[in-house]
Amino acid sequence: MSVLAFDESVKREIKKVVDYANLNIYKLDDILDMWNKQMITPSEIPEHLACVPFRMICYFLVDHPNKGRCHYFHIEPDAWGILPDKAELEYIVKEFGIENTLFDMHITIDKKNKVTNIILPFNTRYRNS
Prior knowledge:
The chain is α+β, with helices and mostly antiparallel strands. It has helices spanning 8-23, 28-35, 86-95; strands spanning 26-27, 49-52, 55-64, 68-75, 107-110, 115-121.
């Protein structure tokens, strides 16, 4: 299990990313445009990126027609090429100010691109479906 402790400078960086995400909320059409390479992805926008100890995290918000507003995370491997474990993911989500429970159904691992993705709905009723 990884042990993380974000200092005040990292917490300030996270706050900037969260503030930016709250002002720049994506719609489902935006996601489709990104998949079709008609729009840059949030991971290409520095304001969506937080550099935390040994990792880069991309955070943004998306309004889904069926899930409602969701938190999105793309988390890269650490400096040694290791993806975060569940405890580290839970710590990261809480440091981004999210109190919702992180269930396994919210986490996907893209082995090809070596990235962990989290899609966590704001609406807690959805999390159990």
